[in-house]
Amino acid sequence: MRQDHLISATQLSRADIEAVLDRAAEIDADVGAWQGRRDGTVLGLCFFEPSTRTRMSFDTAMKRLGGRTIDMGSVESSSVKKGETLADTVRVIEGYADALVLRHPSEGAAKMATEFVDVPLVNAGDGAGQHPTQTLLDLYTMRENAGLDDVTVGIMGDLKYGRTVHSLAAALTNFDVRQHFVSPESLQLPRSVRYDLHESGAQVREHTDLDEVLSDLDVLYVTRIQRERFPDENEYRKVAGEYQIDTDDLDAAKDSLTVMHPLPRVDEIAPEVDETDHAKYFEQAHNGVPVRMALLDMLLENAEGGSQ
Amino acid sequence: MRQDHLISATQLSRADIEAVLDRAAEIDADVGAWQGRRDGTVLGLCFFEPSTRTRMSFDTAMKRLGGRTIDMGSVESSSVKKGETLADTVRVIEGYADALVLRHPSEGAAKMATEFVDVPLVNAGDGAGQHPTQTLLDLYTMRENAGLDDVTVGIMGDLKYGRTVHSLAAALTNFDVRQHFVSPESLQLPRSVRYDLHESGAQVREHTDLDEVLSDLDVLYVTRIQRERFPDENEYRKVAGEYQIDTDDLDAAKDSLTVMHPLPRVDEIAPEVDETDHAKYFEQAHNGVPVRMALLDMLLENAEGGSQ
Amino acid sequence: MRQDHLISATQLSRADIEAVLDRAAEIDADVGAWQGRRDGTVLGLCFFEPSTRTRMSFDTAMKRLGGRTIDMGSVESSSVKKGETLADTVRVIEGYADALVLRHPSEGAAKMATEFVDVPLVNAGDGAGQHPTQTLLDLYTMRENAGLDDVTVGIMGDLKYGRTVHSLAAALTNFDVRQHFVSPESLQLPRSVRYDLHESGAQVREHTDLDEVLSDLDVLYVTRIQRERFPDENEYRKVAGEYQIDTDDLDAAKDSLTVMHPLPRVDEIAPEVDETDHAKYFEQAHNGVPVRMALLDMLLENAEGGSQ
Predict the structure, then answer these.
(1) What is the ipTM of this complex?
(2) Closest to A63 (Cβ–Cβ): which among B68, B76, B82?
(3) Integer Cα distance of C193 and C172 in angstroms
């Protein structure tokens, strides 16, 4: 991977992705061996929107590499409130840190920020834009459990607004994966995403009913359908209920089916599923650590190479 | 101590307690020697309620063992707001961390959480329930200053609602300690607590006036009487004033009397007392560090043993 | 430097200041060499007011010395809300930490706090009072770029309310520096500050127009004029506009002019200036790290010496 920053999963070739996943697997096999790897490195966490799991996962990743983190804290208590621009904020924090992680509500914010900083910057979500490390940990989890060659993946839930889903679907076109999309009609893939998938030559089919495809799936990736997408509570309940899964639903699935979810979940997956071998969503959350360790380590390597 | 988690002080035998206090004393004697002890360990701080001193004390404890901490941050900015269950939150953070500290407003939350995680979990307060590390540091402070054999302890203030007091009183029944409880009538020990103390064979007496017992005490443990427990301000002032101490009050005490307080205090102990040799409440707060270092170290030891 | 605490820049002699700046320069030349310097040291961050850059800068400084930090968090979620005094809060945190950094809204708070703690304490701003590490990093940036001997410095903007400006002006009287103050009439230096500068024998002149002096300057230190200082928006705009600089304004300046700003800026300096060699304000922000590393290291050295 010869990148200075990670802004979008689309900037990564199949070889880039595999390089990150390979290093993540190497790390996950013996995480303790990496503890002194980045001793003395300081990572700046710049979250302009609240985040629990992404922030904690990057925080853990840097610390398990032996480095330190500094946290901007909430926007409410920051200089941003005094009218400071994003460009100024990231340049100041660059003066403290060896790499930056940025989450921002505005699409394009991360790309813009890279025009002002020299240290590696990782996009941890920019509004309706990209969240590439989520995609990498999703791919890692699929590869570890079902492989990424000749597999059938179902992606279910809110396919219209789900940033995670669009990014994952695009990344999967790098691999020999058949993609099935399952959603209510009102939450189908946006036309532009569908167009891009077809252009890339991906094998894509859309469904409104999980039963049409469940028995074929190697992976089922479930996402949340948000209440606020619906005009009234009744319609929400009716629709959402059809896209929730429990152990009865999974009777029709392959024994080897891997069930994933980016979390947090509300009621898309019944708690009883947690006890089955299908459930890989907590493992998936855990995988954020080795994947982000791998990515940070490789970006820091590139930065060192570039400055030599 | 052969425990996987610490949920309640009542789960600890006298031998367990003494093992923790012994190791705390060993640590306190040369804290620098423990700096590399838990290099590479990550502790997850999950505070579902605000906390300054307990959170900072655990944070310091892990860092003085050479480990790292990751902090969930406030509930307001977390996935909890999106409807995530406690069981899911702790399982995700378990995926990042080697041990967890949990504070939660609901009684029983810590016990419940241990059903979902495999790493050691320490209860840092669950509503009206338990806060066992407070009890351990209280016992440690008593042992260092007055001993825990053949001593007379007075516990004063809000004995009705004070979680700290109930837990301490129960733990003291493991030792040869005479307990005197001093409070206004409206804030006496709950019947169930009094019953349990008598059942355990403890030597217990109750008073409304500190003067009845002060001269006999080796330790006086003062707690705060909260304004909100009283229907009107006047009644509060009248009652609270009788349970505040200053240097004049302490003239009647033994020279060796140890005065303790879980802090924060408001006006229960006059600042002039701070300058006397009686005052051990800041030392008591400090003792949270070696006691929590000892406890975390022992739980991590047990976890390693269990996984071998 | 033989100080236990740093409360005000005025407590530092020229020799003290130079000792800190010399060590900062030594650190900045090879920051990695200092990574193990304060292994095992814990710094308590006590910010009773929000702060991004000062807090992050101290946090980074301690971590780049190999130490750890513990953060009190916001006042809203702390024991302060329960009515705890500042004296109690700092004594409790002293029980966890080897040194303290304190920001507080009340002038004199830091000085008062030193009466209660034995560990080194650094004032990181006390209301309208002092913020001495800002002054030190300003001096360091001037010395690195223009020197502190036989130089001409212009200080522009809000000279009436600017704590940073008063402290810097006082510190500059230790050096062979000519000081020019540029501001609207309504925001000129307070009479008491002007008096002190004259008493110290400083070479001081005041202006309402930057053009009168710009071509003579080696350093231009710009500060923000705050909207809330003016009765109405129109008057603010008219006045503020005259104290904003862009590249056209700088045509009249020396090629070697150093432009500084304590940040955050709003529109006092046009973004186009960032691209010029004049712009040193991001370097200035960065300099907070080596300067605070030097200061913390020296205070910790003094504390060790004192306890031996």
Answers:
(1) 0.95
(2) B68
(3) 13
